């Protein structure tokens, strides 16, 4: 049996370069609307190019491409379901008055000078308890975006603080799927992995909190009349009640009980729908439009609010924009983009392009700093190329496992570096599943919040810095074997 010939690293880079060029022109022309179709076409075109190169130049059968693409899409099927439920949950939380209630009290409690740092800390605590950056951002994150808007913060700053905190918890929580995956792939005990990550993660968070604290003091505080206008508008539009806070409380309890994410999000949505009918029937009937029968109007309004985009009359355009929802249909562009990204990742895997490109990084693994930097670079590259953090974690861990063993380093160093490189940077890439999802949920383009996600790009740099210092990095001394 002949060994399959694979493309050289330089040939393998061709689809990536084509994709980058296409996305550059697409984004420059369409702006934030690029996710409505332009970016998807770019990904599919690049997938076709990759497949053509593999089939024509390296005689790789179509069946291999098809299987790899199907496997990739199957791997993110759960994430697609979660996205649909999050679309419904976000709408239900907003229209039931849960998010308006959180905003109403939040703008009065959190001082603007400390809003950004408080925002980061709150999301960090919630994501540690939930183990999910997605759930944190889709629930408390949306409320914090509203508070930030009321206090006059640019949306990029607020989103950056939310994402920084959310991905801190996603990275170190034992409930996080990426944390479990990174430790499993590298065969590192889970809590060994988490404890070892503290040496890079905690300093990264401390620096991040300092930056957000300093930024808060340079923020021009809106007058109390602006905040009063905002809160008055919310109370005029919604029935504000502390009873509505039962929804996030119950959601937190379900998460603490380790109820599966899909079930938790579904039950949270269902509870919010019940509260929406109890506390905001006028809102539901406004969404339904002209209906002669009240029961019919409530039923129609509930369904429309969950699956379709909605907008309500509001005292100001700013408030109207805040309380507008996208529903499940608002997630379809993101789902479409994820499927197209999975097609490209599958095609590049099938023809061996990913393995060929990452072999370039292996050349720099002779010293500790080079080894860690190569792992970081590979993880970041795979996030760019495969557009999925789970695939990137698996490929990075498997690729470097043998190298770390050969060099005599502990598996926990590889597991930590993999998380430092992959988990936190995925949200910074516009076409990555995380970047697309969070941009959609928060309503802020990826490139708008990217400069302010301090934690997310300090973490991989901290991993390299700690390797350069050599702190807590042990290279076991191999004892010669003796015969009995």
Automatic annotation (TrEMBL):
What InterPro entries does the record tag this protein with? Answer: Na/H_Antiport_NhaC-like_C (IPR018461), NhaC_Na-H+_Antiporter (IPR052180)
Entry keywords, A to Z: Antiport, Cell membrane, Membrane, Transmembrane, Transmembrane helix, Transport
Domain named Na+/H+ antiporter NhaC-like C-terminal is located at 165-470
Topological relation to the membrane, as annotated: Multi-pass membrane protein
Q: Does the keyword ATP-binding apply?
A: no
Membrane-spanning ranges = 12-31, 37-58, 70-95, 115-144, 196-218, 238-255, 262-279, 335-361, 368-387, 454-474
A single Pfam family, by name?
A: Na_H_antiporter
- CC terms in the record's Gene Ontology section: plasma membrane
Q: Does the keyword Nucleotide-binding apply?
A: no
Family according to the record: Belongs to the NhaC Na(+)/H(+) (TC 2.A.35) antiporter family.
Give the protein name, as stated in the record.
Sodium:proton antiporter
Q: What is the lineage of its organism?
A: Bacteria, Pseudomonadati, Bacteroidota, Bacteroidia, Bacteroidales
């Amino acid at each position: 049996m002949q060994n399959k010939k694979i493309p050289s690293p330089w040939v393998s880079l061709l689809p990536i370069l084509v994709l980058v060029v296409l996305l550059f022109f697409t984004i420059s022309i369409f702006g934030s609307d690029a996710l409505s179709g332009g970016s998807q076409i770019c990904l599919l075109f690049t997938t076709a190019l990759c497949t053509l190169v593999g089939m024509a130049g390296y005689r790789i059968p179509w069946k291999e491409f098809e299987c790899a693409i199907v496997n990739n899409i199957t791997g993110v099927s759960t994430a697609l379901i979660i996205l649909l439920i999050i679309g419904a949950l976000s709408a239900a939380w907003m229209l039931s008055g849960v998010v308006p209630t959180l905003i109403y009290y939040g703008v009065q409690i959190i001082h603007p000078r400390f809003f950004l740092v408080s925002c980061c800390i709150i999301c960090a605590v919630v994501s540690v308890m939930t183990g999910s950056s997605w759930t944190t951002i889709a629930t408390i994150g949306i409320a914090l975006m509203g508070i930030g808007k009321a206090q006059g913060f640019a949306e990029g700053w607020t989103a950056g603080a939310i994402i920084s905190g959310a991905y801190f918890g996603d990275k170190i929580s034992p409930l996080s799927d990426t944390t479990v995956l990174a430790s499993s792939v590298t065969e590192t005990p889970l809590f060994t992995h988490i404890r070892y990550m503290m040496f890079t993660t905690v300093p990264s968070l401390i620096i991040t909190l300092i930056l957000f604290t300093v930024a808060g003091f340079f923020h021009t505080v809106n007058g109390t009349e602006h905040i009063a206008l905002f809160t008055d508008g919310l109370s005029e539009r919604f029935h504000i009640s502390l009873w509505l806070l039962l929804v996030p409380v119950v959601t937190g309890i379900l998460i603490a009980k380790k109820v599966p994410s899909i079930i938790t999000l579904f039950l949270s949505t269902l509870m919010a729908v019940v509260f929406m009918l109890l506390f905001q029937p006028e809102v539901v009937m406004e969404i339904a439009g002209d209906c002669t029968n009240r029961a019919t109007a409530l039923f129609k309004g509930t369904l429309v609010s969950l699956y379709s985009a909605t907008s309500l009359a509001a005292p100001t355009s700013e408030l109207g924009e805040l309380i507008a929802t996208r529903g499940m249909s608002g997630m379809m562009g993101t789902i479409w983009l994820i499927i197209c990204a999975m097609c490209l990742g599958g095609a590049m895997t099938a023809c061996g392009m990913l393995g060929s490109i990452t072999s370039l990084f292996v050349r720099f693994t002779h010293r500790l700093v080079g080894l860690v930097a190569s792992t970081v670079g590979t993880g970041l590259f795979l996030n760019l190329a495969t557009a999925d953090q789970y695939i990137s974690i698996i490929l990075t861990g498997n690729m470097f496992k043998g190298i770390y063993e050969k060099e005599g380093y502990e598996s926990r160093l590889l597991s930590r570096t993999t998380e430092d490189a992959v988990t936190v940077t995925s949200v910074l890439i516009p076409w990555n599943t995380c970047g697309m999802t969070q941009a959609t949920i928060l309503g802020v383009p990826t490139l708008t919040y990217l400069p302010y996600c301090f934690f997310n790009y300090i973490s991989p740099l901290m991993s390299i810095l700690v390797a350069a210092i050599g702190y807590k990095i042990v290279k076991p001394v191999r004892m010669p074997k003796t015969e009995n």
